[in-house]
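ESCALATION

Customer reports they have been waiting on this structure for their group meeting. Please prioritize. Original submission:
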Amino acid sequence: MLYLAFLRGLNVPGRSVKMDRLRGLFRDMGFDAVRSYIQSGNVFFETAEQDRTVLSRTIGTHLREALGYDVAVCLRTIPEMEKLVALDPFKDIAVTDSMRCCVVFTTERIDPALELPLMSPKNDIEIIRTTPYEAFVVWHLIKGRAPAAKGFQERHLGRDATTRFFHTVVDILAAAKRGAS
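Update from on-call: job pushed to the front of the queue and completed.
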């Protein structure tokens, strides 16, 4: 089974990890065909293990021991990513230079009763759609700055979540499929 691991909190200030080291840490856990995509903690790997709880716990524990801090691990498969991209959730939005279209990957199930769209009190984060484990979010830049995930986003989507721009998610899926066996 090929998994895509979206890791939270890598290569942010104070947490620099070279991708060759990160790939090595995944190989140390016995995973095969380990690859990474850009510097933001996207790792592709193959394993026979299909229990995501076990995989996430194994990866999270190993990374914490090796790096010295907790790393949220959001695992997805290629078919799941294809369905996510096919939703094309931002197709009806007139995107401007002061907006960013994002996907938030969560480790915990998103509350299905969350009333959408949901705008933050600062009008900088708008949750427009969800799946059980992803949220489609529009960031509204204020004075050129992206909003902080702490607070509003974490309160509604969970702390153990990581965000990628939608166009990057499309690129990550394409890269994963290029190397899929």
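Sent to customer with the following note: The chain has a mean pLDDT of 92.
Escalation resolved.
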